[in-house]
Amino acid sequence: MSYERLDHCPICSKTEFKNFLVVQDKSVSQESFVIVQCTHCQLKFTNPRPDEGSIGPYYASEAYISHSDTSKGLLNKTYRLVRSMAVKNKVELVNRLGSKGKILDYGSGVGYFLQACQKDGWQVEGFEPNEVARKQTEEKIGKPLYQGSLEELGVESFDVITMWHVLEHVHTLNETLKALVNATKTGGHVVIAVPNADSYDAKKYGADWAAYDVPRHLYHFNKASMQRLLKKHRLQLKEVLPMKWDAYYVSILSEKYKHGQTKMLDSFYTGFRSNLHGSQNDNSYSSQIFIARKN
Fold first, then answer.
1. Percent of the chain whose predicted confidence (pLDDT) is above 90
2. Cβ contact 112:118 at 8 Å
3. How far is Cα 116 from Cα 228, in angstroms, rounded to an integer?
4. What residues are paired with 96 via a beta bridge?
5. How far is CA 239 from CA 31, 97, 182, in A?
6. How far is Cα 227 from Cα 284, in angstroms, rounded to an integer?
7. CA 47 to CA 8: how far, in whole Å?
8. Helix/strand/coil percentages in the chain, nearest 5
9. CA-CA distance, 66 to 168, in Å (whole number)?
10. Which of 69, 86, 89, 249 has the highest CB neighbour count under 10 A?
11. For residue 230, how many C-alpha atoms fall within 13 Å in the half-sphere facing its CB?
12. What is the DSSP letter of 201?
């Protein structure tokens, strides 16, 4: 196992950090990791972290559900139910961004979103580094996913590029975002969904908040840090939308981490409170969708 320590903030490049929280990986390895916070721009990130060549085993578990299609257990059944509703909402979202053209889903998981876009008339392309998940996506859409370097995607090739809970996993954050922006057409859109480290449920559960998901989640964004990142890459933020179902699923998992058992009533109450808080506090929901335009 090889680890790397960041000496510069990925967003502002400053070098002064403070320890924010120690979080245990309760879904796979049971190891503990430190989350630090940049004292300049306030971005939180896991530091040190497994390097890109060592992160694979932390995904190699059926417990890591976005790379699995299992329906075993209450949590997986809940996730599948939420996913089916979320996919419908995502397709409706990209449809209102413009005419149905060419879309790239970066980090396509097991492929339900791409499959739904394809059925709805989009020309679809996907990128997924996990081999098992990639094969499932390829079976769903009937074509191979892209496996080359991002620089080979071409200039201004896509009308929309989506990253649904993906950017927080990417080691080469700025290089990846730069290449994806380059591959987006002028006037096209980049859609990024990430957990919100300033949400009600994040503050309630602290180190037990499931969406910290260390060490797989390398960065822990809030609205301000995501705005800074988009501006750095010359993207114009057009809209911030909630992912309301995430508050319930994350709360179910967080309750299990905190108490060692699933507590559905407490989870749904916290999810409701989190969404209520988000509606009253500048869209500060458990997860947020950032819609940005390339001018």
1. 86
2. no
3. 32
4. none
5. 37, 11, 21
6. 13
7. 11
8. 40, 25, 35
9. 14
10. 249
11. 25
12. H
95: left (phi over 0), alpha (psi -120 to 50) or beta: alpha
Q: Phi-psi bin for 16: left (phi > 0), alpha (psi -120 to 50), beta?
A: beta
> Of all helices (H) and strands (E), which one includes residue 277?
helix 264-280
Q: How many other CB atoms sit within 10 Å of the CB of residue 143?
A: 14
Spatial separation of the C-alpha atoms in residues 223 and 43, rounded to whole Å: 10
Q: What is the mean pLDDT of residues 245-255?
A: 95
Residue 125 pLDDT > 80, yes or no? yes
Model confidence at 237, pLDDT cuts 50, 70, 90, reads very high
> What is the residue type of 104?
L
pLDDT digits (tens, 9 = 90+) for 34-91: 999 999 999 999 999 999 999 999 988 765 555 455 545 556 666 667 777 889 999 9
CA 31, distance to chain mean position in Å, is 21
Please tell me the least confidently modeled range out of 52-61, 157-166, 228-237: 52-61
Residues in the chain: 295
Helices (H) and strands (E) counted in the chain, each on its own, are 8, 12
β-bridge pairing 123-127 and 102-106: parallel
**What architecture (CATH level 2) is domain 67-294?**
3-Layer(aba) Sandwich (3.40)
Provide the mean pLDDT of the chain.
93
